[in-house]
Amino acid sequence: MTTPVTISGHAVDRYLERIDGQMKWHEAEAELRSHSRVISVAADFGCECVKLANGARLILDGACVVTVLVRGSVPHVRSRLAA
């Protein structure tokens, strides 16, 4: 069973700012939503980051995309082992 995906407004704004500023807001949201299946599967596995083919990294909080980082950025990921 897949988890429903949500895309935050902040993530859409960061996609426009960092990846493709030529898109309109609703186009950027649709682009992020087009990856819903892989985001859902990643969330089910407990992943906190999904790397896209264009190099962008989607940072997740559960099944919610909270921000987008550019290619080459290293996300700050909480370690579940360090406790």
Number of domains: 1
* pLDDT < 50 runs, ≥5 residues: none
Give the strand line-up of the largest sheet. Answer: 1-4-3-2
Number of helices: 3
Helix fraction?
25-40%
Instruction: Give the helices and strands as they follow along the chain.
Output: EHHHEEE
Strand content: 15-25%
User: Could you give the count of β-strands?
Assistant: 4
Distance between the termini: 30 Å
Structural class designation:
alpha+beta
Query: Biggest sheet, in brief?
Result: 4 strands, mixed
Radius of gyration: 12 Å
What's the overall geometry? globular
The averaged pLDDT comes out at 89
Secondary structure elements and their pairing?
Elements: E1 6-7, H1 9-18, H2 25-33, H3 36-45, E2 49-51, E3 57-61, E4 64-69
Parallel strand pairs: 1-4
Antiparallel strand pairs: 2-3, 3-4
Structure in words:
With 83 residues, the chain is of the alpha+beta class. It contains 3 helices and 4 strands; from the N terminus they run E-H-H-H-E-E-E. Helix 1 packs across helix 2. The longest helix is centred in the N-terminal third of the chain and has 10 residues, at 9-18.
Give the structure's gist in a few sentences.
The chain is an alpha+beta fold. It is built from 3 helices and 4 strands; from the N terminus they run E-H-H-H-E-E-E.
Give structural attributes.
35% helix, 83 residues, 3 helices, four-stranded mixed β-sheet, alpha+beta, 4 strands
